[in-house]
Structures are given as C-alpha cells and as structure tokens.
Amino acid sequence: MAFDITINGTLRSIDVDGDTPLLWALRDVLGMTGTKFGCGMALCGACTVHLDGSAVRSCVTTIDSVGDSKITTIEAVGATAAGARIQKAWLQHEVAQCGYCQSGQIMSASALLAGNAHPTDADIDDAMSGNICRCGTYVRIREAIKLAAQSPAREG
Amino acid sequence: MIHHRIAPTASYADLSRRNFLVNSAVAGSGLVLSLMLPFGQGKAVGAEDFTPNAFIRIGADGEIVLTMPYVEMGQGTYTSIPTLIAEELEVELKQIRLEHAPPNEKLYANPLLGVQATGNSNAIRGAWRPLREAGATARIMLIAAAAKRWGVDVASCRAEDGRVIHTASGRQLRYGELAAGAAQMPVPNDVVLKRPEEFKLIGTPAKRLDAAGKVNGSAVYGIDARPPGVKIATLAQSPVFGGRLKSVDDAAARAVKGVRQIVRLDDAVAIVADHMGAAKKGLEALKIEWDEGPHAGLSTQDIAHELEQATLKAGTVAQNNGDADKAMANAETKVEANYQLPFLAHATMEPMNCTAHFRGGECEIWVGTQAIARVQAMVAKAAGLPVEKVIIHNHLIGGGFGRRLEADGAVRAVEIAKQVDGPVKVVWTREEDIQHDMYRPYWVDRIAAGLDKDGKPVAWSNRFAGSSVIARWLPPAFKDGLDPDTTEGAIDLVYALPNFHVEYVRVEPPGIPTAFWRSVGPSHNVFVTESFIDELAAAARQDAVAYRRALLDHNLRAKAVLDLAAEKADWGAPLPKGRGRGIALQYAFGSYLAQVAEVEVARDGSVRVHRVVCAMDCGTVVNPDTVQAQIQSGVMFGVTAALYGEITLKKGRIEQANFDTYQMLRINEAPAIDVHVVRSTEPPGGMGEAGTSGIVPAIANAVFAATGKRLRKMPIDAETLKA
Question: Are A94 and B73 a contacting pair at CB < 8 A?
Fold first, then answer.
C-alpha cells in the first residue's frame, strides 16, 4: 500500500511495504540522497533525520511507523534556526573531511541545539556518540556545536 | 550565510537541475565548484579555449576549469591541488571550477607511483613541481598573448587575479579574453617558479572548496548516483573466501514486493529490486547453500602460526649496515621481542558500491574510486570489452583509506549488470563490506637489539613476515623479494643505529585477501620500531625521550619534532596514578612526526586516550588547516585501531560484521589533540596517513608508562591490563 508522509513540509506518497525503512524511501524512491546509509542497524547515525524535531535513525524507522509525524532531512534542515546555525558553524570550523557522515552529524547536532541552547560536553557526548565519523572529525564537531550555541539565535 | 555554493553535477544529464544550480550560483556571488563528471558532461573543448596542459582549461567565456588528477576522499586534495596551480596561474581559488580527471594513465599518473591513483599520502609530493609548472606555463603564455596584442615587451606585463596587466599603461585583459591568443603562443621550455617568500596562497589557510555540499546534503558520492531507470541490488558473497555458490532457493525472495530479479554468480547471489529496502528483505529471504571450498577450516591462529614459523627462516635483506650478528654477540645486554598486528578492515562510512550499465557493446560505470584507470581496465576485462568502451564517472569518496584503490566492487557490479537490463546500483550491506573487505595484512615481527654498557644500541636485528600488497597491486614495484611500501618505517630509521639488519619474509595468507590500509607499511613498522625503541630505553633505565634524543645528533629535523612534542606535552610532569605518557617518532611519507599520547588505564584494564600532542615537520605547508585536520583524522583512525581494531577468521569466515562487532572510536571517547607544526621551506611531505602510524605505538608506550605492561600485540586486550 502507499504511505502518505510529510517530508520537509511536502506530503509525499510512497508505495512500498510497510516495514521498509524510511532511509530507502528517501534515497531510492524519492531520490533524496543527502541522507546516507552506513550500517542499517542504528549503529552509526549516518542516516539520521528529524521526526517531529527529534533525531531518529531512518535505517530502522519503518515507513508505517511515521504516520502524521513530520520528517525533516538534511536537504531542509538549513531552514530551521538550529540547523542553519549548525551548518554555518560546520563551515566556519571546516568540520567535514570525506563528508559522508556529516549529514547525520548535522541532523543530530541540530536536534541537540534545538532542544538545548547551551549543551555541555556531556550533553554533546550523549547526543553525538551515536554518530560515527571514520575521518575522526570529533574535535571539530564538538567545537562547531559550541560555536553554534554561542552564535545569536536569529542569525542564519 | 553560506558563501560557497557547490553545484554537484550528477553524471547523467539532469539539465533542469543543473541549470538551476548554475543560475543560483551565478546569482550568489560565491564560488561555483561544479564537480562535473568527465565524459560528455564537461563542456567540449572549444576552438577558442586555452588548454596548455591536461590540468587547465580557460574558456573564451572566462571560465577556468582545473582537472583534478587526485580524487577527494576527505584529505583536502580538491583544495590543495588547486592552490598549487592557482598560485602560479595567478588566479584566486574562487575563480575556478573543478572536474574529476577521467582515466588516463599518460596524463594523470601519479609521478611517485607511476599509475593514476590517489594514495600513500603523496598527492602533494607528486604534484608539488608539475602542477605549479602547469600553472606557470599557462600564465607565461597568457602574458605572451597580451604582450603581443598590445605590442609591448612581455617583461612589462604581469598577471594578477585572472588578468594580465600592462604595468606602465594600466591596460588589462582578462584571461578569457586572452584564451584564443594564448593557445597560439609557444609553450615555454623552462619556467621559473615562485620563491617561498612570493607565495600568496601556499601556506595560507584556505577554505575547503568541497565543504558547502557536505553540510547540506548536495555532495554527490558514488552511492548517490542515480542514472534514469536505475535498479538497486545488494548481494551475498561466499562467506568463506574462495567458496562457491551451491544452490539458492529464491521462492520467498521473489515474493517480496519490489524485488525484480535474482542474479546468480559463481560465488555470490544478488537481489535486484526497486529500492534497497526490498533488496535487503529479498536477500534475507534467500536460502543459500555454499560450497565453502578449501579455506572452510581456516582460523586467524593458523595464519599467525604460519607467519611466526616464517620469521624463523631467512628472508630477503631489506637493509644491512655493519655486522649485527657480531655486534649482538659482543653486546652487554640483549633485548628480544616478538610483535604481532592483526588484520584490519577499512570500514569506510560509505559502504562499497558501484553502479553499472552494461549495454552489450559498452559499459558505463558510476563509482568513487582512488584508482580510476585501474577500475576501467578491470571492468573492461570483466565485461569482455576494450578499455575505451568502458565509460567511467568518478565521484567524491565517502572514505577511502586504501579500500577504494581496489576494483573488486566495480568488477562485482559489472558481473551483476551483465545479467540485468538497464543500470543497476550494487550497494553492499555493512556486513558484506566488513566481511568481504581486502584487509590490512597480519604481521609478525621478531626483533632484537644489543645494548652497550651505557644502554646505547649497538646492534639491531628485525625479521618480519606478512603479505606484500604491492606485489599484487603494482607487480613491477616488487623486486627481488622487496617493495618500498612493506619496508617503509622498518628501514632508514631516524635513529643512528650501527650494525643494523632487517629482513622481510613474504607470506601471502590463504583465504583472506590483503590490501593497503591507511598508513600502509608504516602502520605496521612504526608500531614495531617505536615500541621496541621504547623497550630499549626501559631496558637501559633511561627516559624514553632522552634515549631517542641521544640517537638523533645527525637528524636535526627529527630531533626538533621530538623536542617540540615533549615540550608541548609537558613530558616529565607528574601524572595521577593509572595515567601515563608515551611517545613515538617517525619519518614516513616524507614528513617527520612526533606524537605523545596521554592515557589512563582503569582498574578493569580499559584504556582511555585523553590527550595527544603532535609535533610535525612536513616541509612546506600548502594549507595549514588541512594539515591540522589530517593529523587529527589520522590520530583518531589510529586510536580506533589500537583500542578496537581486529578482524579475525573462524572456520574461514570473518567473525566481525557491523559496528557492534567492529567498533569505531566515538566522540565521547575521542582525545583532545594538539598539533604543532615546525616552519619549513623544504618540499612538502605527506600528511594524510602519518598521524595513524605513530599514534598506535605512542599509546602502547603510554600504557607501559602507566602500568609497566608492554603491549606487543594489537589491539589492546583489557584483560591483560586488569589491576
């Protein structure tokens, strides 16, 4: 059956089995390739998206579980205040190397900042330890989150 | 505000999207980095274009396109290589557009490898002269064209910001306006390159040109290729290397919604589907029987035993100075040790993938590869086509680390594509990626040294056994039992070591393929030599830094980084119980690097790396921020290896499968890293891998300092460190 879900503010109809992970609906059905596949078991965070503002792993979020919740992906997170600040800080600190995990890192960091204006190191560890970066950009991820937290909320 | 817009252009024509991106990029004032893919996508070279060499194209419309001979996999090469060209061409980085190089060994071979490949931390080393010369050549011809047009002496003109200026009159012409004329000018034979004090770009932090697309999801990796009509496939390969497919019951898989086709190969099965979700579900529904073949009983212990035995027999002499046997016999003290390093997987965050469209008479490939010409050649062979009938599009790479120097993934995709009507993207599950990697070799080293009465080494003897990746990958470079990679870090040490003898015994393990892994030869050899030097210092009851320092009077660059690292790390300052500092020093990839690790060993034996201080002399720095980033990256990669990295075989099967059983360092475990760079005008050294090889022994030496327990086998086994 087809599932109607709201992605980045647009209602999309996706005709797949209900147990299909959201990740594949995004990447292969809708062609939104910014969300990445890393492990398929919620171990690496590369596929992180927002479900009603919370960071979730789309590789284990089945399409039939989404319902009326609103999905935000990396393609649109820049339209949120926290997402824009995180992206800007990522550029200022030159976080990305290969960049493959960074969509997921940015989605996790944006959700953190949206819910916690001044995250501590422990908060950052809690929110970000589900996201693996094989290039080891962790030092800069931490710095960039702190920078984003310091930047004026209205600036984008 | 995001100032830089990147217009990633997919390899298939998606004109409306491309026009949108180009227009929006023009509307914004920033850089357009359009990662155009080479065949039929980049604009054809026009008669009015200026193409002085294979790296630069200046259009009559003023567009400056640089073709990148090395591929971007995170190391910053798509910023630093353009910097070399732009420095001499006298353009700003924001004025250029980049393209991936097509396969062409003649035009784009890496001068240090002799083949078109990105690896061994040598892009900047290889490009340092030729690509500055490429820029200078173009500049000279542009100036000549302007001088001719104005009827003035070339010496009265200069180039600046993409224009030629006649200094006396102030007249100027943009490069685009000069393109057609420059193409008619003679190519200069000898070009004089800038002196370091004249550099405008080299040595100045430059913002990465690939950054913007990597924060908004628009960067296009191989796995993101979507040619029209593409199907998605995933596969199961024989769980034992060398095994064959015996039978498949695919009834349940065929019933999965979205599954289109089951492809049988000699040693693999693939499910072709509308999307990866259906392909994975179909794969899980298959009932597969394998003929496991000759390696069905193989275990890691068998391989380790074979390698240990191999170190008892003579190998090929890699280096010999003086008479190590005689000096050893006369030494006051003899120190002996055996070291072992495990197989390691690459675990790039972008799992292995390749998209292939086999059309009978030709084959089109979309992939991110470190070795595009190699992939083209091997695809041609697998497809039964001449090389020129293989069209290949390179992409950004979501982690290379040596994995994408191999063509096995592309060959697999072609084998599958030959049975599929239309393009098919073959995406490996993480489990397949880890269990069918080509692995960093297992190593066994048998090493000994003789010390005089003052503890100074007077004899050094090392014999190690393991796989030569070069012998398979680049056979001509494996000569008389040796190759330059396998021995790097084991010979030509930074220290003054008289009576020095090193032998290599090549042993190719059965049932497990080996490959290059970030920091390659030094990832093995630096662990052994820097751990063993530490053992000698301990045997001599001397400070680990002072002991090394006393062997460096002839090597001032090495001594300088050792001193700098020790100073910045507060070497010698007291630490709480359970903590220790360890140092490692190396010359590898053309760079000197000293690293101090500060670790804490808990009562349960678990090790935490708190802080790492790095001091390096990598010669001339092209982009200081990239050097910092690469050292940080290399360190994290090495910490992962030291704490967790181990691939093991049982009954011929790889026991690890995903990030739960093959762990990666995470942010909550990441050390603070300080990087200090020695100013230098020497030619640049490599930086992409250096941080990885040195940190592993630095950690092991720090554990020794904290606990008195010497780690001679990686990864760290917490059981052995329990209080």
Answer: no
Token pair of B53 as six digits: 């060499």
**Chain B 406-435, CB below 8 Å of chain A: which residues?**
427, 429-430
Contacts of B224 in chain A (CB under 8 A): 33
CATH of domain B300-343+439-721: 3.30.365.10
By three-state DSSP, how is residue B320 classified?
Answer: strand
Q: Give contacts of B 248-267 with A, CB under 8 A.
A: 256-258
Residue B621 has, within 13 A of its CA and on its CB side, a CA count of 21
Contact residues for B446 (Cβ-Cβ < 8 A; gap 6+): B311, B312, B336, B338, B462, B463, B464
Residue B43, C-beta contacts closer than 8 angstroms, at least 6 positions apart: B59
Q: Please tell me whether residue A77 adopts helix, strand or coil conformation.
A: helix
The b/e string for B477-490 (b: 16+ C-beta within 10 A; e otherwise) is bbeebbbbbbbbbb
| Helices and strands, number each (H, E), in chain B | 20, 29
By Cβ distance, the residue of A103, A125, A135 closest to B217 is A103
Among A154, A25, A87, CA closest to B219:
A87
Domain borders along chain A are: 2-72, 77-150
pLDDT digits (tens, 9 = 90+) for B306-317: 999 999 999 999
Strand B649-650, strand A48-51: pairing: unpaired
Q: Which residues 2-31 of chain A have a CB within 8 Å of chain B?
A: 16-17, 19-21, 23-25, 27-29, 31
pLDDT tops 50 at residue A132: yes
Lookup: tokens for A6: 């709201």
Whole-number Cα distances in Å, B505 to A141, B306, B324, B447: 43, 11, 18, 13
Distance from A122 to chain B by nearest Cα, in Å?
Answer: 8
Phi, psi of A15, deg, nearest 5: -100, 85
Is the fold of B5-214 the same as that of B222-294+352-427?
Answer: yes
Domain map (residue ranges) of chain B: 5-214, 222-294+352-427, 300-343+439-721
Count H helices and E strands in chain A, helices first. Answer: 5, 5
Residue A60 contacts B where some CB pair is shorter than 8 Å:
no
Average pLDDT estimate for B191-202: 96
User: From the CB of residue A151, how many other CB atoms can be counted at a distance below 10 Å?
Assistant: 16
Q: Identify the architecture of domain B5-214 in CATH.
A: 2-Layer Sandwich (3.30)
Residue B10 pLDDT greater than 90, yes or no:
no
Write the class of the CATH domain A77-150: mainly alpha
Mean pLDDT (whole number) for B427-454: 98
Query: CB of B347 within 8 Å of any CB in chain A?
Result: yes
Residue in A78, A129, A135 closest to B399 by CB: A135
Terminal C-alpha separation, chain B: 53
Give me the total of CB pairs closer than 8 Å, taking one residue from chain A and one from chain B: 204
Class of domain B222-294+352-427: alpha beta
B668–A125 CB contact, under 8 Å: yes
Cβ-in-10-Å burial (0-12, 13-18, 19+) of A91 comes to: buried
- Rounded CA-CA distance B207/B710 in Å is 43
Give A151's pLDDT tier (boundaries 50, 70, 90).
Answer: confident
| Residues across chain A | 156
- The answer regarding whether domain A2-72 maps to CATH 3.20.20.150 reads no
Residues B387 and A156: their CA atoms lie apart, in Å, by: 49
Q: Tell me: the pLDDT tens digits for A36-94?
A: 999 999 999 999 999 999 999 999 999 999 999 999 999 999 999 999 999 999 999 99
Element holding B701 (H helix, E strand): helix B690-707
| Residue from the list B349, B400, B401 with its beta carbon closest to the beta carbon of A101 | B349
> How far, in Å, CA of A57 to CA of B378, rounded?
37
